[in-house]
Amino acid sequence: MPLPFFAAVLVGFGSLVIGYILMPKTKAPKPPSVEDLENPTAEAGRPIPVPFGSIEISGVNVLAYGQKTISKRNKKQGKK
User: Which of 37, 32, 30, 31 is nearest to 68 (CA)?
Assistant: First the structure.
């Protein structure tokens, strides 16, 4: 009686391994770039958003902006 149970477990484990080997590999998504950001616009009569709390505002109405770049900030952790 233990032989059929062992055979079923062995077949199940074998099919699991074969399924894992034949599984299609996914490509990692490309991280967003600076070029993917939306350019701000300046339009007369466009409403000015007034945020309350922590929110993200997209499509801000500005008069001028500089070169889009990514800068890394290092935050020093001090002792308390």
Answer: 37
